[in-house]
Amino acid sequence: MRENWKDCIGEFKNYLKIERSLSDNSIQAYLRDIEKLHSYCEGLPTALMPQDVTLNHLSDFIKWLDIKNPRTQSRVLSGVRAFFRYMMIEGKISENPASLMESPRPGTRLPDVLSINEIDNIILAIDLSKPEGQRNKAIIETLYGCGLRVSELINLRLTDMHFKQEYITVTGKGDKQRLVPLNQNTIKQIEFYLQDRNRLKTIMDKNILFLNRRGKKLSRIMIYTIVRDLCEVAGIKKNVSPHTFRHSFATHLVQAGADLRAVQEMLGHESILTTEVYTHIDRIHLKETINLYHPRARER
What we know:
Helix content: 55-70%
CATH superfamily of the largest domain: Intergrase catalytic core
Mean pLDDT: 88
Low-confidence stretches: none
CATH architecture of the largest domain: Orthogonal Bundle
CATH class of the largest domain: Mainly Alpha
Number of strands: 3
Shape: globular
């Protein structure tokens, strides 16, 4: 039986959710790419069903997208490969047309990192006289002190906080949980914020740690807005997002000599290769130090 695109994409979505345990954001990214392939195949002079797609069709599809960024192109190819791999597993096709597709090789792009002084300036830019001031300070301290993703931060629950043991339970990608240590300063700022939180007239999301003034969970966009506004006040010209604090957390640990496996565990990376990017940043830091302070370098 030849299945149509709608049925295949719907079943693929269930596969990603149930068998692969991917997050909603990852699933939506995959589905967007497959919908693009669907639109391309239906727009051909002779419309193609999923079972009709060949390697040549996929190559023409990539050219049709006209994507200049190698990383974006690699992401699209990853989604296409996952779709046809699923089709093979389910026996819907006998050969995988995406198996021979080669991804472009993008150069290593090192993430932006804040210096310790820049982070201090961002924290000093917080107006603690405002109702949301202490909350925002606790948010920045948690982002930097624990190296959290935005989604992990906004979903932190009161029951995830273990102040006496000095760690938090973080639910990361694929609903995988990990333990991340809490430093004393982060604990102190969260405890100060909890005093303000307890004074909210209405609390809708009772177990969520960080709330807006209506007592509801903060959105991802709100965290980005908080970071952007604070960087503007602090005069930080770098391209800073909430994720920059995660990069800074890891980079500063590696620079101080932290074990890479420990950093990997705290960040929740599945592969050590993902964490190793911070060793490249560290090497750049060391080279800059040599150029700035070594007598022979200064002589040049």
